[in-house]
Structures are given as C-alpha cells and as structure tokens.
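Hi R.,

As promised, here are both runs. First protein below:
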Amino acid sequence: MGYTSFCLVFLSALFFQVWGNRSFVIDFDNNCFKKDGQCFRYISGSIHYFRIPAEYWRDRLMKMYMTGLNAIQVYVPWNMHEPLPGVYDFKGDRDLEHFLDLSNELGLLVIMRPGPYICAEWDNGGLPPWLLNKKDIALRTSDPDYLNAVDAWMSVLLPKLRPRLYNNGGNIISVQVENEYGSFMACDYNYMRHLEVKFRTYLGDQIVLFTTDGNTENELKCGTLQGLYATVDFGPVPNATKAFEALRKIQPKGPLVNSEFYTGWLDYWGEEHSTSSAEQVSQGLLDVLDTGANVNMYMFIGGTNFGYWNGADFKSTYKPITTSYDYDAPLTEAGDPTDKLIALRAVISQYLPVPEGPIPPATQKYDYGFVALKKVGKLLDLLDIFSPEPPFVTQYPITFEDIKQYYGFVLYRTRLIWDIPVATLLSSSPNGIHDRAYVLINGTFCGVLERDHVMEINITGNAGEWLDVVVENTGRLNFGAYFNDFKGIVSNMTLGDDLLTDWLVYPLNLDGPIAQGWPQATHFAAVSQTESYTGPAFYGGTFRIAVTGDTFIKLTKWTKGQVWINGFNLGRYWPARGPQITLYVPEGLLSSTTYNNITVLELEGAPAMSVVQFIDKPILNGTVRGV
C-alpha cells in the first residue's frame, strides 16, 4: 500500500472513530429524539444572525448558552444572500458559516430553517424581490420559474450546511422544509415534495427534516407531508396538552415539538408596543415542558431590521413592521438580559443542567447628547448624485421591479399640461400606491398618499410645472396569501377626471453615495430664514466621542425618514406615528478617533432646530398616532 493510500485509510478510520457513532434520529416508539442512542430533549431559542452585527454574535450566543439552552434555531434569508440572480454574499454580517462555527464552539446545537420562504417578519418573507421580474410568477408553488430559482439557490446554500450536520461532525440536528406552509393558500403538495427531494439530495437520508405550522387541523392539513416530521407553534396557553391535540391527530407517535413558543410579539407602526409578562411566558414554558415536549422560544433575541429589511403584514389593511425587532424577547434588541430571561432560566433549570456562573452583563450604553444637523439639500435637487443615468420614459407608471430598483425610493415625474388654479384631487386607487408617496408641485411639498389609507390629496399648479411623486417601499408582505407585492405606483393616477400619462421614472440609489462618504461639509446648503423644512430633503452633521459604545438616536420633532451613521443605513424612523421613537446604534458603527457622520433623509417635515440626540436607553413604547 502506498503512502497516500495508507493516509486515506487512516483518515477514514479516524473519521469513523470520531464521528461514526454520532446520530440524531426520531424514536417513534419512545416518543423522543435520540442523540447518540440516548433519548434527548432540546430547549432552544431563535436568533437571527442577519439582525445582529457580527461582532456581537458571540456575546448573544454566550448569553443564550448561559441561560441553559442546548440549541438555537436559525433562519436563512435568501434575499439577503442572493441580492441579484447568481450574485451571492456571505461576507461580514452575512457570514452564515462563521455564525454556525461560533455556535458549535459554544456547544449549542442548531435547528436550521433555510426556507426558501421564512416569514420572520422580514421583507418578502425572505424571498428575493427579483423573482417578481416575471410578473405572473406563482411564488411558493410548483411554478417552473420559481422552482428553477429555488433549485439554483439551494445548490449554493445546502452544500454549506452538509458538513455541519450532526451526523457529519457538526451541530445541525434538524432542518426545516419551507415554513408554515399550511397558512398559505396554494396547498401545493408537489411543491413540498420537490423541496423534500432537493433537501435529501444535498443533505442525505440521515438528517431529520421537519415542518412547522400553526396548531390547528386546517393548517396542519396543507403544511405537513409524509416523510417530513410535523411540529407546531403556539405561545403561552392555558392548556399545553390540548394545544398539541391537532398535531397528535395527524402524527400519533414521536416527540412533541413546539417550534415557535412565543416569548413576545412584533410591533407595527401606528400600534401600541407589544409586551408580555415574564410570569406569563415562564409559566407557559413550564406548561409546555411538563408535557415532555421539545421547545424553541421565538424569539430569544429579536434584533434590528436595519436598512430596508422590515416586512409587512396585511390584516384588512397593509401594516408595515417597525425597525426594531426587539420582540419583547428575553434578550433585548441590544442584547441585554431581562427579568424575562431570569425567569425562563429558572424554569429551564428544572429540566436541564444550567451552566454555572453569571449571565454576561449588558453592553455599555452611552448618552452622547445632542448633535446639530445642517440642511444638505432637497432630494429633487440631488438627482445627479442619486440617479445619474437618464430616467425611464413610460406612458403609464411602472413598478420598482420593472426598473430593478427593489428597495428604498423611486421618483415618478410628469408635467402638468394645464393650469390648476383651484384645488383639484390627485388620486390613486385604494391599492394603487405601494406604499407611501410624497407629492410635490414645482418642488413644493403638497402632501402624502398612503397605501390603503390616503388615496387622494388636493393640489394646485400651473401648466408646465413638474408633478413629482417620490414613492417609498416601506416593506414587502411577509405572511399570508398576498405575495407578489410589487412596489411603486402600481395603477394609474388621475388628476380630477383626467388620467396622468407620460412619466419619467428615476431609480434612486441613496445608499451607494452615502456609503462612499456623501455628503461632505462642502455639500451643505446655505439655508435662509424662510427656507422650507417640508418635503424630502437631506440633513447632515458630524460629532466626536471619546469612547465608543452602544447608543440610541432620538429624532425629536422629526416626522419620518431614514438615518445613516458613517454610511450605514440604520433603518426607518417614524416618531410622528410611533410606537418606536429611537433607533439602535451598535458600537461597531462608531469611532472614537475620527469624526462620526450622521445623514438623515426627512421625507415630510424636519424641525426648524435640526437636532438629533443620542441617549443611553431605547424608547420603543412612545405615543402612538394612527393613520
């Protein structure tokens, strides 16, 4: 035998010796999972790496481990990793493999939820919006165009997971196929079967594949499939045994699993901040564990919808989700332990050994005080920076997707072809603006149109003046039957009785120039005493600090817009509607050696005293003002 052959045999024998006895399987006879031949129960928590800066991953995972969790549950957002067809990004805050390696180092098992649809209150439920380039595509079905895109994505993602499966020496013990499919109207079993085959092809026959659905017979009917292990989700309930009854009807044997035990809930703009008590959640967890079930707490830490990543729901009307995804979880948006975490740790300690020692403390928060901002200029005066190419010319409005501008803002422009001396209604259909439009005549701000809420405003103007409509995508639907959520002016607009035509459409790339350092002080406008502070405009400023730490930016008396710190898009602010008043600023964005830059796009109305404040506590439960 040659040296090379001997090495291969030796390594193979060593691999078998080290990993050959590792197994994670379902024992139907004993109603349990078996890990390495022994009955095993997991108590897990959900964490979204894509909502937490990478420099904080270890801190958050360590806090979860010290709470007594033996596993974590992880979604993978397709749209973040494949922003354009065939363009993949797994770097920095998107480095999934590094995140999984950290969890393995800390001794945490992983329950993977790779989608392709994930919900997660994330834009489009994690599905990339470029799928909508084909307007009649049927998402989450056996539509060949959709399946081809899914197959291409899974051919990239799943091979990254295979070496990290528990049977292969990693820490992934199970993998979910799709997500809450029983809540989707299609009920396409061929689609689910296609996914099962694809997952088995890449991950092998040994991995536990499962589904998750609500705990009703109707949801389980369309969400489950023979060959995939069924689990359910529900929060604290009076009778946990009863909550599992629908699952037991379709799956009489095997371990019980609550894949999403809700520790809190999400927030919508314009509604009260959602909370649940530590007593209620800890008692609910105790009741679930008393049934002998496995459980995953959703969320254990929520995190932040930085940039434009928040999703939206449709419950009689369109409801965008806030930038904060704090979720009233055991760990706050900034990763701080709460009373709820302490109460849950006490419950967990009755069922699993909890690591000795204290839970790592909250990170240092700083009150950096006030920073004055100067007006940089109106958005419409900066098109050479944010939309340097010629606009799209079209008779009727086209969508964001038509021009491959998937997030943020698009400007629609047409000329008034007659004088409008008296107030005349500019209107859209009830569902014609997706999602919020800022209307200007000859550069003067006239008002806002809003999806499902404000369909018309009165305007006046002169023939030849520009009618500008800046449309904001405030988040694609992430749950329910209404997918294919196109953005922009999605139906025609009328002025009085006349249809508006002959549009110029400008895609607005705000993040590119700002990430590259715009604006410098030389761009700041000289503002007169009579300068208007209404309508879409940029404001900027700088500040220095002696030491860096987490902080929260508060925009008192500002209305609605977007904030960047040192070129990083923190997300949307909307204190005029609430409940969220502050935005979380992680320490890693700040510098103690150079000036820090703040850039604000205010869309409606900035205060005459253009000041922001950095404080050391979040305000997520501010006054709510509805539509």
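And here is the second one, sequence first, then its structure tokens:
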Amino acid sequence: MAAIGRAGDRWQSALSEHPLFSQLRGQPNATAGRGQLKNLLCSLDGDLLIWDQEECGFVTLRLRSLSSGREQRLLCINPPLFDVTQVLVSPTQHHIALIGSKGLMVLEVPKRWGKNSEFEGGGKTVNCRTIPIADRIFTSSTSLVLKQATWYPSETQEPHLILLTSDNIIRIYSLQDHLTPEKVIPLSNADEETTLPHNGRSYKASLGETAVACVFGPLVALSKGHGVYSKEETAYPLYILYENGETFLLYINLQRSHSNIGKLLGPLPMHPAAEDNYGYDACAVLCLPCVPNILVIATESGLLYHCVVLEGEEDDEQTSNKSWKPNSDLIPSLYVFECVELELALKLTTEEEAETLESDFSCPIKLHRDPICPSRYHCTHVAGVHSVGLTWLSKLEKFLGAGEEDKDSLQELGAEQKCLVEHVLCTKPLPCRLPAPIQGFWIISDISLGTTMICITSGYECITRPLLTTIRPPSPPLLCSEVDCSITESLPHVLADVEGPFENHIRGILMRNSANPLLLNSSNKESSPPPEECLQLLSRATQVFREEYVLKQDLAREEIQRRVKLLIAQKEKQLEDLNLCKEERKSLKEMAERLAEKFEEAKDKQEDLINRMKAVLRGFHTRLPVLSDSERDMKKELQTTQEHLHHLGNAIKQVKMKMAYQEKQMEKGKSPRKSNLTLSDYQRKNIQTVLKEEGEHIQEMVKQINDIRNHVNF
C-alpha cells in the first residue's frame, strides 16, 4: 500500500509540472473566456483529455507514463464554430459531446490498438469525425441558447442526447439523425408565452418559470393500472428544475411507449412547505444514485437543498392545490432533509464592510457526481470548488427501512447530523479580487492511479487534491474489537459518557465545520490587495486553524490522555488481580497435592479396616452356639454328599469286579485252544456297541467321583 501511495504522489506531482499547461498558458488567446466557468477536462481509460480551444482538439496525457512525454492530439475534422464550455463523455465512452451555449457537436473517440493501446496505434495527431447536433436550430435563431445537454443514461441502446434550450423545450436527438429531433417536449404552453417588447425575454422567464437544468435519475418501474408495477414497463425519470425552485418530472424510455412517458408531471410537492418555495434563483440539480434517491438543488446564492425522493400520497394537500391534473399514477414528493450554505468566497469577519460585500456575492453553481462514492458530490463555481458528503445517509436508510412514515420524525433525524462540507479550492480569497473560474474539473477513479480530484484553473495551472474518505461507509467490526459485557460493566462510570467506539468519539471531536481552502495567487501583480485585506485574510486563516485544528486537537489530546490514564489504572488493577489469581492458583495446587496424599492414606486405612471387619465377622460367626441357616444348609448338603459317595464307592467296586471278570474272559479268549463258539457278524457288532456304551458310562462315573472327592476335600 505504501508503494502504491508513493506512485500516486509521483504521477500527481508530474501532472502538475507537465509542460503542456505552460504551453496552454502561453497561447495568444489563453486569456479569452477566463471569466466563464468551464469544464474542458475528461478521462478515458487512464488517459487525461484536455480541450485545446486554439487547435480545436483534445490533448491526451497518459497518466501511467507521464515521464515518457508522449502526447496525442485528437483534432476535429469539422471543428466547432462556437466556444466550447463543457465536454461530456457518453455512457459507453465512445463519444464525447462538445457543448457550448450556441451549439453542440459530438466527437467520435478513435479506436485503440498497438503495444501501448494508444489511439490509432500511437500517431501523434489523429483526425476524429465530428457530428453537429441541431445545427439548423442554432444557426436559424440567434437568440436561442443551449442551457444544458446530457446523454441518455442507457449503455445498451443507441446514443441519444437530450437538449434543454432557452425556449423552454426539451429535444431528444439521435446520432443517426442529428438534424431532426426524435421527440420534442415543450415545457410550457405556447399561448402563455408572451415576450416583452424590449429584450425579448418572456414573462415566464421574468417570473422564473422556465427550466434552467435537468438531470436523469436511476431506472424505475412505472405503475400500470392502479399502482401495480411491471418489470417490462421501465423508464428513466428526468427531473427538470425551474428557476423559481419548482421541480417537474418527465419519464423517458426511447424503446417503449407508456401513458406516463413523455408527459410533464409536476411540480413535485415539497415538504415541509415554504413560502418562498426555497428560493427563486435555482441554477442546478443533481440526482444521487443512492437508496433512497437524493435530489440536490443548488441556488446562485450558495444554498444546497438535499431532498429525499419519497413515494407520492393520495391525500397530499400540495398535490390537490396544483393546476395540473394527476392521472392514476402517483408522482413522487420531495422532502427537504437539510439545507447547506456554501461559503462561495471567504468571509472576513473583521470588518462589517467585508461582510456586506461577501453577502451580496452570488454565482451559478455546477454539480458533479462522484464516481466512487454515491453519497458524495462536488460543486464548482466561479469562486472555487466544494465537496459535500452525506454522512447521514446510512441512518436515513435504516429509518426508512424500519417503515417509519412520519415526516416529523424525519425532520428530527435531519437535525441530528449534518453533512460534511469541504472547501477544496478558493479562487476569490478577497473581496477586491475578481473571480477566477476553473477551466476543468474531473475525478480520477482508477485502481492503479488512486482517487484524485483534478482542477485546471483559469491560469491553466493543474491542481490535484485527494478526496474525502470520512464519508465512506464504515467497515464491519472485527471479532477482536467486540467488547465483553462483563468487562464493560467493570469499567468506571466515566467511560459510560462516550457513546460508541472510542475511535468514533475522537473522530467526532476532530471533525471540522470549516477549513482553509487552497488559495490561488493572482497572476496580475498590479492588482495586489491592500495590506488591510491581506491582514483580514491572515486573521481569518489563523482563526480557522486555531478553532478547527489546534483547539480540537487539544481537546482530542486531552480526551486521549484521559482515556490512557483510565486504561493505565485498569491495567494496573488487572495486573494486581492477575497476581492474586496466580497466588491463588499456586496455593490451590499445593492444597490439591496434600489432599491427594491424604486421600491415598485414607484409602489404605479403609481397606485395612474392611479386612479387619471381615475377619471379626468371620470369627464371630464361628463362635456362635447356634448354627445359622446357611450352615444348616451346608450341613445337609455335606450329609447328602457323603451318602452319594458311599453309593458311588459301591458302584466303583462293582465296576472293578466286572472289569476284572472281563479281563479274565479276554485272557481266555486269547488262549490257543480252539473254541467251538462262533459268533455271527451281527452279534459281534452288538457286543462291541454294548461294550463301548459301558465304557463311556464307566468314564462318566469316574469323573463324577473325582469331582465329588475334590469338592469334599475343599
């Protein structure tokens, strides 16, 4: 990670010192148009594209290899005849819109190939095809002004451009037919448009009832019938902001036709209602792609309104009082969650005159999305750059996810935590200075390059600044960071006043409400400010550093020291408890050994006592004058056994006598004299069988006699 950080610092410093900016600064017409806010900067696949008004083309810088010095110039075959004030990349990144107040052209991005994946293989100069959009309309009408142009947000459909012009009409153009609009949507009735006799400005424009900006929201499903949503009927909501602060809604889907698509709905009801409708100098609108959608409305006086887009209600009083007739589908409503005032120019509080000058200063504001964090956006104006982070978005998601519908509770939630505003760049540090609007603004969101804000000043100086990271959603807690309940209860009561983790507590102490932005020095040495204003600026910077940096760091240091003191006391107490536990464990171990020895001794004594008791009982029973039941049974059994032995002895004598008789008969049979007795085979077989059975019977009797003798001897 450290290596990546060092590499990121290298390309940032190399970009700020690149010789291209000195070349642009030295052009003859470099000072022309500096008083107008422009955005002539964009990025494609790690290449930074800067519009060169002198040559009517882009100069590309490869951010990964700035030290090589290789540059490519993308020139227009048909260069624009108007002054380009903004460049806008299409969602597919195949086209770049060149936007001006008096025209619009689209540049086709050339193909890449070769070793380093450069445009057209790496040629130094590449000719690019350009497509003029609505050329006839702007050439035929000299008073028509292009207020805003934006790409249709679909990445799969054919590229389309949506144009908002000063005649209060939205025109949709396709690149295939760039002269005739596919659809024309008027934002006001032609009968009501009556121009003034002198300057040609309509009454509606004088009253602020003309559109000044528009922005697309995320893809939504349209209701069909009575609020039943169908996945097939989807469209992109286009929010249209009027100068008087009212917001209208227009659903656009270039592939399907629906009853709501192409119809102007509004003005959208706003809660809580205000008498001045939240200002009459609205200039920009932005829809953040978070859930729920957040609509940001900016005014020229520096006020930002963060509006939560909520579903419409049938009993809405503001809806019933509007002149338009709503159809069966409910339009969404806007809830003004909070209002933020930007410090367009530095406020010097030392003199009252400086305050009056600063309070009268106002300018149009441009809003830019952040490609990394959906809950963050950026503001550019002629006096500098601001970054705004919505730190309360996670709480709002939980609040709406819980099913709460009470707007009063939502207002209480908005008062708990405010958004985080950072004043990044200030080009009008003193009241006597003229505004120096930036000429380019872009956010680099590449993995290898990191996340960096790039600004090109009116003097063609490149400034790179890191982005805020405090508004990122917090990482899930680690298992080791979980605190045991028993340990928490044992801590002193002093720690109970710190809500949440200690890191969040310190982060809340160090959070700054204001900061010192980067100040740009004026290139005109003759218009040096007076010493009084320089002293005011120095005093203001010193006061901010003292209140927002030094004081809060001192408070954080005291809190950390207090926490460290408590932790040291807890550590000492835990060490004492640990030593006591070790001593207790040692004494318990010794006691266990002694108890084990005593147990063995007691066991041996118990066995001796049992044996002695058995011997005593045996001797006691032998000396009793009366036989017990078991002894009587034993006596009877012995008497019966004696009788059996007598009978068995007689049987043995008979067997022996028979055996002796048989032996004599066998000897007689073995004598040589011839006997006249002859036996048949059947008789011989029967005799052998009888002898065998008698022999087995004799063996069994001998075995029984031996068993009885053994039992008696025992």
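A quick note on the second one: The first strand starts at residue 41 and ends at 44. Let me know what you think.

Best,
J.
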